[in-house]
Amino acid sequence: MDLDILPTTQHLSAEGEPDLIADGVITLQDAEGVFTSYRQCLDRFLYNILEEHDSLTSIRKSSPLLTAAVCVVGALHTFSPQYQACYEHFVQLASVRLFSKKNTPDDIRALCIAAFWLGDISSSLIGAAVRLASELGIHRHIQNARHQRDCYRNTRLFYLVCVCDSQLSITRGRPPLAWDFGSIISPKELLQSEYATKLDESLVSQLELWSISTQIFDRFYLDPDDDLPNGWIPLTHRLRTAIETWKVEWDDKLLVNEIEAGFASKATHLQYYFTRLYLCSVGFRRPAISQSNHPRSELGLEFAAAAMHSAVSILQVILTDKEIQSYLCELPVYFNDMIAFTIGFLCEVTTKYLANTWIDNAEINAELDELVHAFHNSTAIMQPKHPLAGVLSSMRHLVGRLQTLRQARETGHSHHQQMLSQIHAFQHSN
């Protein structure tokens, strides 16, 4: 028997369980590489969820599931040939852990990390994370987060679960699974903890923004095919005011350390524009029959124009900022969904509303073409199963359809002009 392939004590977690390195799925050297990549490049997008785990050794001692999550996400972003093997191991281990009675907060961290970047299984993973958070009772530590470090860490983890859940619920068209804790205690209380960091300000700001987004979902997106409800205009004004108030309050507060300051500010602006788009795009929907006697322009024009401005602003932020373009491959699933929602919205609007003077179809089409080019450059060396690759494929399809429609219109317009000329010539000849 080859004793070298057997798991040793250094390969076992605190519970005595082997991990994917001990099982031979990935070598220790490769695991160190993907861990370093995750820790240095990706963890900040999830508000440093690893916290004190600053080494591969640390997460291996803590949780085989956390080790697997970091390895598979790191492999996804490093073009590692071990990605598929790590992915299969993680899925198998996560399935087993769902029925375990020995789960820990680090297992919740693992599910959040994977849900943040593995788009095809993200909804299932965050659902499991919400359930484990409830079973472990990490929400019960909010009252003591000010002065007890473990309570602070558990509260922070609970908020991370809520952010992940909210992001996926909005972009996937389902209600959040986590409960509304804002009525019990304000998320801002976390900032009063002696252990709070600058990143916690960004985390709390996201909780408050997603609370607004959830209200938008509840009012307008439970069935997006429904007519707009009675009283939708004052309701939309109220929610829009809440978004603008959020922006004014948090714009100057979100200053984190030098490495993260630039992106944190830019990400906040992207999310602000997306939330405005998410709300104001209802202006393109049909009001209820009881409101049909009101002029359409008075009901929806203001909000429709705001939605267009927000969508175009998202494109322009991405196209004009090289730093954001350099992060495209690292951004979580939510940002991919946000970009896909924006592109789908613009394609639909430019197809349906051809004659509006406040919709510059030519400019939008040009920016969409440019965005495809930018995404193509970013995805040239990424894993084929990276979520952004799917966004690029869908984007190419939609932009291709727009080009076909544009060419058909131009051909039709030319034919129409030719017919008019023939008619005029016939009229003058008689």
Tags for this entry?
globular, single chain, disordered C terminus, about 425 residues, mainly alpha, disordered N terminus
How is this structure best described in words?
This is Xylanolytic transcriptional activator regulatory domain-containing protein. Its main location: nucleus. It is found in: Nucleus. The chain is an all-alpha fold and 430 residues long. It folds into 3 domains: 116 residues, no CATH class; 85 residues; 181 residues. It is 66% helix and 0% strand. The protein is built from 15 helices and no strands. Helix 1 crosses helix 3, helix 3 packs parallel to helix 5 and helix 13 packs antiparallel against helix 14. It is globular, with a radius of gyration of 25 Å. The N terminus and C terminus are likely disordered.
- Biggest sheet record: none
Low-confidence stretches: 1-9, 290-295, 422-430
Indicate the structural class: mainly alpha
Helix content: 55-70%
What percent strand? under 5%
Shape: globular
How many structural domains can be distinguished in the coordinates? 3
Number of strands: 0
Topology:
Elements: H1 28-42, H2 56-62, H3 64-76, H4 83-97, H5 105-117, H6 122-136, H7 149-172, H8 198-221, H9 232-251, H10 258-280, H11 296-320, H12 322-327, H13 333-352, H14 361-379, H15 387-429
Helix pairs in contact: 1-3, 3-4, 3-5, 5-6, 5-7, 6-7, 7-8, 7-13, 8-9, 8-10, 9-10, 10-11, 11-13, 11-14, 13-14, 13-15, 14-15
